[in-house]
Amino acid sequence: METAYKAVQSPRFLVERLPDGSAAVFDTETEAAHSLNAAAVAVWECCDEPTGVEEIARMLSEAGGPVDVSTVRRTLDQLVAIGLAEQTIAPDTAALRRRAVLRTLAAGVPVILTLTASAQKAFAQGAGSGATTTAGPSTTPSQT
């Protein structure tokens, strides 16, 4: 299995993104301040989910030009050393594809249920089933 990297999501990190794409990160636990250049920020952002080195290099290359795998690996090692990322095992890509398909299907379920409920209501109204209400005063004779 391939080694993957995942960004550490923790309230201990205060992140200030700068206009040039770089970021200043303050670790409230260790009271250390880290400065990440734009390239390091881009690598870090690719690690929202466990991602392998080659995959990160491919994503960055598609976004803006060739990126060397060894540069990505060195950056990830530095991110791990300062606690902003952690090493993990790359998930099975086939399982990820299955999960993505299931998520897509699950997202469609409420729409299908909504359409089905609407169709049933329209059919019931067209068939004259259910209670109907009339506006206006009641015309029932009073008994005395």
Can you walk me through this structure?
The chain is α+β, with helices and mostly antiparallel strands and about 140 residues long. The protein has 2 domains: about 90 residues, Outer Surface Protein A, domain 3 (Alpha-Beta Complex), CATH 3.90.930.60; about 35 residues. The chain is about 45% helix and about 20% strand. The chain contains 4 helices and 6 strands. The strands form 2 sheets. Strands 5-1-6 form a 3-stranded antiparallel β-sheet. Strands 2-3-4 form a 3-stranded antiparallel β-sheet. Strand 2 and strand 3 form a beta hairpin. Helix 2 packs across helix 3. The protein is extended. About 10% of the residues have low confidence.
Number of strands: 6
Overall residue-averaged pLDDT value: 76
**Can you name the CATH architecture of the largest domain?**
Alpha-Beta Complex
Briefly note the CATH topology name of the largest domain: Outer Surface Protein A, domain 3
Gap from first CA to last CA = 90 Å
Cα gyration radius (Å):
28 Å
Helix and strand sequence: EEEEHEHHEH
Largest sheet: 3 strands, antiparallel
**Looking across the biggest beta sheet, what order are the strands in?**
5-1-6
Structural class: alpha+beta
